[in-house]
Amino acid sequence: REPITPRQPRAPKADDFRTTYHPSSDRPTKIEAFDVFGLYPSNPFPFDTKPWLPFRSELEFDFAKIMLDSALSNKHVDALIKIIRLEGKSDLHNLWTSAAGLHGLAPFEPHDVKVPYLDTTRIHTLWSRPLMAWIQNALEDTYLASVINWDALQHDKYNGEEWIPFITEPWTAKRMWSFQSRIPKGGKPLAITLYADKTRLSSFGGHQGYPIMANIDNLPDTIHNGHGLGSTQVVGWLPI
User: Fold this and answer.
1) Are 37 and 28 in contact (CB under 8 A)?
2) pLDDT tens, residue by residue, 1-16
3) CA 127 to CA 136: how far, in whole Å?
4) pLDDT: is 83 or 65 the higher one?
5) pLDDT category, 69, cuts 50, 70, 90?
6) CA 56 to CA 95: how far, in whole Å?
7) Which of 21, 50, 83, 132 has CA 20 to 30 A from 4's CA?
8) Distance between CA 70 and CA 92 in Å, rounded?
């Protein structure tokens, strides 16, 4: 009996797409036609019938979101709650804390950062929250686990003469390929992007600053650019 050899990709045609996986993934290269590339079995995000939890109602969630987006001080939030006769500011703050906990978000903690300036050293307070609890919570979710990509790969399109590489997601870029090449076989790269969103100036404890955002690059951009678990999260606050 002759040994079974791995199936080789078919000969390419114009407008075909090729997907080459990192060698440590042990996944074969595949070639797909233009009308097939990018089509995968549907795996819709599970429908949440009560997305406003732990708030008691959607109206209560909408009110809390307006308070948060408006960056009102505790004094103003308390005054507004008294006007509309809700249960109180402390209850609203507890609900905010509970909602953050559902997404694995730990409370913000202050850290003093020393910055040399001329002949002195200035101390700035940076507020941040641990990343690992949020990351672990996201990776343990059954839906996110089914769509996360753990292997670097390269996409190419055949123009009839040669293969032209292109990038779609972070794991299709050269940097992710390089990272996976540097770790022991069997290990997988986990990429996190951190950036300060200077389009959203916010107030915090009487000061102003920019939120520091984080997203998991192994997840599709439709998820980390969306809302809910796995989406981009605020993990710090950069004072100005």
Assistant:
1) no
2) 444 445 566 678 899 9
3) 21
4) 65
5) confident
6) 9
7) 21
8) 15
Which of 26-30, 36-40, 155-159 shows the lowest mean pLDDT across its residues?
A: 36-40
Tens of pLDDT, residue by residue over 109-118, are: 888 888 898 8
Per-residue confidence (pLDDT) for residue 176, from 0 to 100: 93
The answer for residues whose C-beta is within 8 angstroms of residue 120's C-beta and 6 or more apart is none
Residues 99, 115: Cα–Cα separation, whole Å: 34
Cβ-based burial of 171 (10 A; exposed 0-12, middle 13-18, buried ≥19): buried
> What single DSSP character describes residue 14?
T
Phi and psi torsions of 4, nearest 5° = -85, 125
